[in-house]
Write a structure and sequence with these properties.
The complex is a heterodimer of chains A (234) and B (94). Chain A has eight helices and no strands. With 234 residues, chain A is mainly alpha-helical. The longest helix of chain A is centred in the last third of the chain and has 24 residues, at 160-183. Chain B has one domain (2-93). Classes of the chains: A mainly alpha (234), B mainly alpha (94). Chains A and B meet through α6 and α8 of A and α3 of B.
């Protein structure tokens, strides 16, 4: 009986999924023309009115900026739940679940590499509107730098209060810049700053501000994840 | 021509790494094979002219996911055994 109900439920879900996909009509002339029109609008608007040279960034942050806010919220919720399950009240410094005693080559090398990794991550998210990359990628690169230091030095520690302050400020910046679009008589996340010159560092209006905020937020969240997982006592 | 040969070799390698990751009983080796899948996938994304996705895949798939799985393997059980793995996992979680 139970199996029958499961099969029936799966059949209903499968039928409606297939129906939806066949209803879209991939490859039909109507569909192809629609996609082409949207693509042309995005690419011409990106270069002409937003003055951003990376079309992916302009779609992710400006045309589909609300989706990015949702993504950031999902990441924030996931990190919060992980922390609430695994986080212990107080960690003693050096009290880790994974004890690799690193050799002196590793410690010296990671001390040299750590500033370079931070610089690369900052470069990736500051230049998100000019070159490939952006807030998410730059934030993850910075988090891997902190991971390297946490593995190399047993008493390296990051303050959870600092991480949460950085994370909250970055999130407030993102939502606040979005809300400022309303005050200038537009919609949520509408551009209100001068767009500048194409291929300039200070171009694209609010896009660099939002990507820098996203970069700080992702870096703080993922550093918190690594720290919590590494110090979780089994 | 050389472009297609490179893509074909990468496809063969990625499928081989995926099969190895599923069939390997040592979970640490399986985790490293998963990292290799992400590495090859990021090269493929780059060759298919999607550098943004390639950066994301390289940073998240190769570095972060692999490290989190390695820490998890270290904290639970390393070898996958049939039948006993559930009880061992329960005792390791406690």
């Amino acid at each position: 009986m139970k199996k029958f109900v499961v099969i029936l439920l799966l059949a209903v879900v499968g039928y409606y999924t297939a129906d939806t996909f066949f209803g879209i009509g991939f490859g039909s002339p109507h569909f192809v023309d629609g996609v082409k029109a949207v693509k042309d609008v995005y690419i011409t608007q990106t270069v002409q009115s937003l003055k951003v040279s990376n079309a992916v960034t302009s779609i992710v942050v400006n045309f589909r900026g609300f989706d990015t806010l949702g993504e950031v919220t999902v990441l924030f919720l996931a990190v919060t739940v992980l922390g609430s399950i695994l986080y212990k009240k107080r960690h003693r410094v050096g009290d880790r679940s994974v004890l690799f005693s690193a050799s002196s080559v590793v410690t010296a090398g990671s001390k040299l590499l750590f500033p370079a990794i931070l610089l690369l991550g900052a470069y990736v998210f500051i230049h998100g509107h000019l070159s490939p990359g952006g807030g998410f990628q730059g934030g993850v690169i910075i988090a891997t730098g902190f991971l390297l230091m946490l593995l190399a030095y047993e008493n390296f520690s990051v303050g959870h209060s600092v991480l949460s302050v950085v994370e909250s400020l970055a999130g407030i910046t993102f939502a606040g810049v979005g809300l400022l679009g309303f005050m200038n008589g537009g919609t949520f996340l509408q551009n209100f700053l001068p767009t500048g010159i194409l291929n300039d560092l200070f171009s694209g209006g609010i896009i660099p501000i939002i990507y820098i905020a996203v970069g700080f937020k992702v870096a703080a969240e993922l550093t918190g994840v690594i720290y919590t997982v590494l110090h979780e006592k089994g | 021509m050389i472009y297609f040969i490179l893509i074909a070799v990468l496809f063969v390698l990625i499928i081989a790494a995926a099969v190895y990751a599923v069939r390997q009983k040592d979970l640490l080796y399986a985790t490293i094979a998963t990292g290799i899948i992400s590495l090859i996938l990021s090269i493929l994304f780059f060759l298919l002219q999607a550098p943004d996705v390639a950066l994301t895949e390289a940073a998240i798939g190769v570095a972060l996911t692999t490290i989190i799985f390695v820490i998890t393997v270290r904290n639970t059980v390393r070898m996958e055994e049939e039948g006993q793995s559930k009880e061992k996992f329960k005792s390791a979680v406690k």
